[in-house]
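Teaching note: in complex prediction, the entire set of molecules is handled at once rather than each chain in isolation. The prompt given to students was simply: 'Predict the structure of this complex.' The entities are:
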Amino acid sequence: MTVTLADVAARAQVSPATVSRVLNGNYPVAATTRERVLRAVDELDYVLNGPASALAAATSDLVGILVNDIADPFFGIMASAIQSEIGGPGGRAGGERLAVVCNTGGSPERELTYLTLLQRQRAAAVVLTGGAVEDAPHAAAVASKLRKLADAGTKVVLCGRPPAPDTGAIALTFDNRGGGRELTEHLIGLGHRRLGYIAGPEERTTTRHRLEGHRAALEAHGIEEDARWTVYGRYDRQSGYEATLELLRRDPSLTAVVAANDSVALGACAALRDSGLRIPDDVSVAGFDDLPFSIDAVPSLTTVRLPLAEAGARAGRIAMGREEAPPGGIATIRGELMVRGSSGGPRG
Amino acid sequence: MTVTLADVAARAQVSPATVSRVLNGNYPVAATTRERVLRAVDELDYVLNGPASALAAATSDLVGILVNDIADPFFGIMASAIQSEIGGPGGRAGGERLAVVCNTGGSPERELTYLTLLQRQRAAAVVLTGGAVEDAPHAAAVASKLRKLADAGTKVVLCGRPPAPDTGAIALTFDNRGGGRELTEHLIGLGHRRLGYIAGPEERTTTRHRLEGHRAALEAHGIEEDARWTVYGRYDRQSGYEATLELLRRDPSLTAVVAANDSVALGACAALRDSGLRIPDDVSVAGFDDLPFSIDAVPSLTTVRLPLAEAGARAGRIAMGREEAPPGGIATIRGELMVRGSSGGPRG
DNA sequence: AGCGTCACAGCAAGCGCTTTCTATGTCATA
DNA sequence: TATGACATAGAAAGCGCTTGCTGTGACGCT
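The expected output is the structure of the full assembly:
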């Protein structure tokens, strides 16, 4: 039924070995023979059997990309960049690799299961994007999995994720703390003294780091934080909306709201508007990430730009061995403060 | 070095066959034996060799999802929904399947290459999302590929894509024409008579269908279209920005701008604002898709909501054989007009 | 008591490919 | 002309798993 290497070999009047060599192009084959084989391949419409070849060669051309939420452009942009460097079809790299994007939905179990699945497929490389969960047992489980992958020859790269010591994984980490600090300092510089903070899910490293930066800025300027000023939520618009209403309820005198990311910030803007407050006249708003839509908000969003595409591309190249790993296997990528219309001096 | 089935078998004092059966659970194995095997698996930290198993069983648990642009939430949302039904880790389905998202970047060649790669991996199913390219040779090549995939037992589902006759592919198509028409009729109903249209890439089916709907509405209301009122571009914000400036240059008296999708519409809004025009007082704007950010635009965007998540979920279920295919293998999914702040009566 | 049934477990034959090693013909060199 | 050296091609041994078929006791039945 299905055409095999042997069929091609028969048709081209050569041995299967020769066909394999033509297809893999890593062994001298006379031009005329090669052409004959290629013609047979074409005529029979032969397609290599991936599993068989992976089994025999003990390698695979699968590259896994783990993301928390594929519907979120934050991850989409990174995944896209990673993939373009993986050299899937059309990429620069020679060999065709199948870049597979796996959506963990932020669930630790799924993350682990996907890693196992990739291990099972003997993936050539794995790139994990986005923050990690701080749950100790899970972190240990992931670390052990990563070590096993690395030991089995799979290249492991973390993109926008804190380093995983002793796992052999290369880490490109975002400086969430520094960005958070810079952002809040900008607001403080404008004169704000009462700032609400809408954090992401409490157990995520990204959440904690950004919040730490925010608090560091407050502290550096002698602003004592009110416990009511922080609300935890999810990394989405709705969460931002609800959290903002909650903040307003807790302390209507807030003059600025700092959000965990841009989506949350947009939700915050909507809530403020719905509460009859003007941005930035009454309340300033700041986001994080600088996703494409942030510039289209009205007023456009003050935020911290993370070079997602660049980081992804670099992660992809490292995963493919086309770029050297940073010294120590760890690189910190800084964000850039983007001051736009959503932030201004406090009212009055 | 690496642990194999045989190692587990030796440790559990059973034959490899038994271990395989325990792992696949499709053959009676005594409870005590099973437990012994499972313990050995655990102790040895055994991970099945995917390629070997796929080769021997002549099936794979890979499911491919093709998207045009993974950084675009339009595709991200569908991919996410498809994947959740595929039953990757955490999904409802029992068997663990690896859902792989492939980013074609809208390139026909890449699309074809990815299909071949998936064919090579003997994918269990393939879901193609988004519009197709209208280039005849390419369409034929894709159709032939789809037929081969279907013949080889791979389930092929099109989600948000026009049907591919005689390929055995199930199609869930968006009613882009109907949506486009409804949208423009809404604007005409408001009193607009001079409407600019910012189309997507000319060679895409989605572009053509939406534009056809727009024109049908114009015609139905006896509005003669000016050739200057249509500009082609890409499906992104920047394209919308530039196209709007171009439209304004060509005919400053336009009172409404209809965009190929929401991202383009946002770009249009930005261009209008930068040109000193108010929305909708001076010019109304309409988008398409109703992506999450559209409601956050100021004013919020009038658009056509496409049930991306629902369609994706359905496509996923069909691909898994957990839902029956629609009669005739084709279902048309309608959009819903969402009237919001960006559209109003023409000035004056 | 004799024998068919049933529930398990093992044997062994591949699945379709890669790759090492070996064979063969062709040259250039001595 | 004899002889390496070299360029190619083939034979064959797996890669690690699945599965059809073949045992083999333990049971229940007449």
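Point out the following to students. Confidence is low (pLDDT under 50) at residues 90-94 of chain B. Chain B touches chain A through 61 residues (CB under 8 Å).
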